[in-house]
Amino acid sequence: MTRTGRLLVERRSRVVRGTAAVLAVLFCAVSAWSYGQARGDDTLAHATSRDEVLADGKEHIVRLTSFDGEDPAAGRRQWLDASTGPLHDELKRVKVQKGTADSARATVTDAALTALDTRAGTAELIATVRVERTPGAGGTTGATAGSQRKRLEAVLARTPDGWKIQSLSAVPVGGA
């Protein structure tokens, strides 16, 4: 290769490396700007709040639909820890004696928020729950052991201790 040819190849090589370096710096700058925009975005904050409310709601639905008939005081504490407002007041009045109630163990199989107002501190959630029942020794419900599926709707409120359930109701099958 001639001297002129080598100079031409070296020049092209420098131009390609320089162009690649400029493009890399430009890509990094655009990525940093985009990250900064997303980090301060209200949409991201709303999504984070939504995930927090959904997790709290699912946990509290499990607490409110589970009960240990052999240790009703612990079950009642769970109910009170998961609730607020009128539901909390109603649950305070519930009295169950040891060994007289059935036991139930719940699992949330699916859940979704249907409404979230972070400014007002309110949310609505729907969930499907599988409840495994075990009749208590002195149970008065006449229930048999087995599994039930329930559809529930919960209204949540933000409290100083996090999101808690303010009301919980069954959703009829078939939307009726």
What does this structure look like?
This protein has helices at residues 3-39, 42-65, 72-82, 85-92; strands at 103-117, 122-134, 146-159, 162-170. The radius of gyration is 29 Å and the shape is elongated. A hairpin with a 2-residue loop joins strand 3 and strand 4 (162-170). It is an alpha+beta fold. The protein has 2 domains: 1-40; 42-170, Nuclear Transport Factor 2, Chain: A (Roll), CATH 3.10.450. The N and C termini lie far apart (86 Å).
In short:
The chain has 176 residues and is an alpha+beta fold. It is 45% helix and 29% strand. It is built from 4 helices and 4 strands, in the order H-H-H-H-E-E-E-E.
Specify the oligomeric state: single chain
| Separation of the first and last Cα atoms | 86 Å
CATH architecture group name of the largest domain: Roll
Query: What's the β-strand tally?
Result: 4
Approximate shape: elongated
The largest β sheet comes out as: 4 strands, antiparallel
- What is the string of SSEs from the N terminus onward? HHHHEEEE
Helix content: 40-55%
Structural class: alpha+beta
What is the number of independent domains? 2
